[in-house]
Amino acid sequence: MKEKRKLKLKKFYFHPITVFLFLTLLTVVLSGILSAIEMQATYNTVNPNTNELESTLVAVENLFSFDGMKFLIGNATTNFISFAPLGTLLLALIGITIAESTGLIETLTKRFFSKIPKEIFTFIIIFIATISSLINEVGYAILIPLVALIYFMNGRNPILGIITAFCGVAFGYGVTIFVGSMEIALMDYTRTAAWLIDDGMHISLTSNLFFIIATSILISIIGTIIIEKIIAPKVGKYKKEEEFAKTEQYRVINLEEEEQKKIERDKYEKRGLRFALITCIIVILLFIYMLIPGLPYSGMLLDMKENTYLNQLFGDTSYFQSGFTYLVTLLLIITGLAYGFGAKSMKNDKELIEEVGKKISKTSYIFVLIFVVSQFIAVFKETNIGLIIAAWLANLLENLEFSGIPLIIVTLILIAIANIFLTSPTTKWMLFAPIVVPMFMQSNISPQFAQIVMRVGNSMTNGYTPILASFVIYIGYLNIYNLNKNRPITIRKSLKMIAPYFLIISAAWILIVVGWYITGLPIGPGVYPTL
């Protein structure tokens, strides 16, 4: 018998840049088809002045047309420059790279981070990532590259660090240890929707405070277990690229000289850390002073046009919120330079700048990816497809006759599905609030608890959609640290890596929300799940 040879088909691994180009083209063609069949939706919003519902019709915008082509060409540069992850990531990279080049991050990793048990360190990362949503989405740009670098220096797989940071921010988005930008964004829609039933209903910024504090800790614990027990074994160890071929050489080692160098290096590192710590404390105190109103030259980071302090701090026009990434970058730059000066790890400014340029150039590929993704997201948003799907799901909920626990679970699932196509929590709540809040109130569920259901549904699928703008940072850094350049990490593979986290955390979120409703524990000061 002749030996049968198995015919193996060659697998193609499309680069994410290529895939996003295809998705952009597909979206353009699809918009033409859906526009021709008149795909549209009607949704209701509450007029805050009249407290009445106003109907809005939205249809698919045809980009597969003469005007559509003009939009694609005329807005390409604007789409790229105004794409939020571009500026935040570039700023964060400057600060991180300077701190790395002076040796600060390596010394901190060697002396402190490496001594922390990996489970505790994972919990710390996820917890910081979770509460980072206090300031919108800056956690993606700062934590993903920073944690990847720390993991790399600590001998752990940097891809695991990327997954940990991304999952912490994405699947815990909206739960923090204090009220922040999410409350500012959602509260007005919750209030106006509640007034449809009870015009005396009061919704405060602290209405969800107890819930978000408790769940930020609980979700971080669950996330740590998922990362360490399920994802870490699958990701495996990281094989570092060897810069030089290994050769066996005989050389005479002067042990006394080596020991002396080690003592001297240790002395300079300790001095550098002291300089960095003192500088860090001074800079943070200055930042805090800028957040205190009423003192001489203070309040620089506040929007003093707002009436309440929280709006001054977390409002859309707050200098603290819009400039937070820059503040972190300044902190990294100043403390990094202080360490370099104290540890004598910087010879001169020219050498430092050249080193920073070399390190940033290694990540330059991600900016090409950002350009392509910015076009895809802008095109998808312009077509209104995501808005229409979300409006359909909101209208579907209105036609369902549920109450109590079934109503809570169905609402969670529909909001989670809507989030795959429409990632903006504000726009989503604008569609869902006039439906969800009255339905909940008629089922004796408080509007404040309805807002919790919204933020949880948003978190459940937040990291599992390529339409999320910051998804580009996640998949970009996976490929930066991917050693097999012939097999890029695709969108499918990047989602597969975090699938266990997505599934378990989603189930956990549903159990937490339902359990909180059943127990009737307060969700904020004087606020409960039921009316």
Which features characterize this protein?
mainly alpha, 2 domains, about 65% helix, globular
Structure, explained:
Helices cover 65% and strands 3% of the residues. It is mainly alpha-helical and 531 residues long. It has 2 domains: 35-240 and 346-519, no CATH class; 255-345, no CATH class. Strand 1 and strand 2 (52-59) form a beta hairpin. Helix 7 packs antiparallel against helix 8 and helix 10 packs antiparallel against helix 22 (491-519). It is globular. The N and C termini lie far apart (79 Å).
Architecture blueprint of SSEs:
Elements: H1 16-36, E1 40-47, E2 52-59, H2 66-74, H3 76-81, H4 84-101, H5 104-111, H6 118-131, H7 138-153, H8 158-170, H9 181-194, H10 209-235, H11 255-289, H12 309-314, H13 319-322, H14 324-343, H15 349-361, H16 365-383, H17 385-398, H18 404-421, H19 425-442, H20 447-460, H21 471-480, H22 491-519
Antiparallel strand pairs: 1-2
Helix pairs in contact: 1-16, 4-7, 4-14, 4-15, 6-7, 6-8, 6-10, 7-8, 8-10, 8-21, 9-19, 9-20, 10-22, 11-14, 16-21, 17-18, 17-19, 18-19, 18-20, 18-22, 19-20, 20-22
How would you briefly describe this protein structure?
The chain is built from 22 helices and 2 strands.
